[in-house]
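Bench log, entry 3. Co-assembly request; chain sequences pasted below exactly as received.
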Amino acid sequence: MKRRKSLFIHFSNIRQLAKKFALVLLVLSAFILMLINKTDTILIEKTSSVATDILSPMIDVFVVPAKAVAGIYDYFKELKQVREDNKKLREENRYLMGNLDRAKALEIENKLLANMLNYTPPPEAKFVTARVIAEEGDAFSHSLIAYTGHVNKVKKGQVALSDKGVVGRIDKVGEMYSKIILITDINSKIPVMVERTRVRGILSGDNTPYPKMIFIPLEAELSVGDRIVTSGVAGVFPAGLPIGRISSIEKNDVKVTTFSNLDRLEYIKLVDYNLDDVLID
Amino acid sequence: MLDDWKENLVSYMQRLLPLISSLVLLFISYTPLDFFPVHNIRPAVGFVCAYYWLVHRPDLFNLVSVYFLGLVDDVISNVPFGANIFSMLVLYILLNNLVRFFNGKPFVIVWYGFIVMVFVAFFTKWLVLSIYYAQFLPFSIVFFSFLFTAAVYPFLSLLLAFVQNNMIADEE
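Structure output for the full assembly:
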């Protein structure tokens, strides 16, 4: 009896020890994963792409029911707005139709002048529209998962656009799903310029809703409300894509409010500007 | 024979339910919804589920479940691999030593416990990622996320309590 009891205590001690050992091992593995993430990006990227491909369909299953539940709330919220919006849109449409005629005339004129100058036009862009199935926006990271991947020939580094402007770039591509880093993410750095003064800088995300414009010349002329567009430097993003407006200037801190509402993206456009030489796969 | 097989399968599924329900809630938390009152701040559903099950059914939600939940969170989010696992393990270590204290205590005490522990878990994640990126991440947003997660706990724990009471057999 005594022997059995001591055996039981012995066994329980071993179990406790194994549990502690497993805990230490798992904590260590978390650290090692972070270290690999910092040093060997290719291995992590490939693993992450495969894992995203496996998990994303499971999230996708919940998108429709979750949206349906949230939709009831939205329905009542938006009902009032619809009539006013409709009226505004009709007026806007009338104004834009007038602009369209003018734009067509300018396009023809532009083509004629370009021919006279022997101007080489930029390659035509191809795009894929993708549905957003998951979004993340907190203090730790800002990203999206979109339902498109290698099957649609999207590549790492391609620009992600909304109807209002740049939202980010593709970070990881799986077979069916891709991860997109938003311009507000801490890992996002985009060469930009102020449209009015052509002052260049880098738009750097910091995990807040307002990315910062850094590396601006000291004598740069900036004011609140200035439009920020891509500068095309480094060639990853073509020049002139709209990003946002300067919302505040404090000493060296220039904050930008993005044109796109990055928290409410349902569909995004992934554009291939034929920049294969620059994009790293 | 077939009944035995069926019984075993049901019992196995029941043992997996805490992890499955946590994963389902985690997936839903990442779906793009306009539902949240404050944008850019979402509740850390992983912490809520891990805490709930570790307090109420530690026999069905163990170290491996915590690790797996953290790993899945790492895959979906864009934080460096290991960051969510690490913060989940911190929560596990804290709770492992205090789980007996919460046994049979009223809900408010369990909720207060969650608030304290999830703050430590959030702070750890913030610290680890700030070191990783070699710059401080916005603490104000982390703090609001923590407050939001603390506020959401009673509602999510109601859902998890429903799963626990209706779908999982009592502890033997």
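The mean pLDDT of chain B is 89. The helical segments of chain B are 2-30, 45-56, 63-76, 83-102, 107-133, 139-167.
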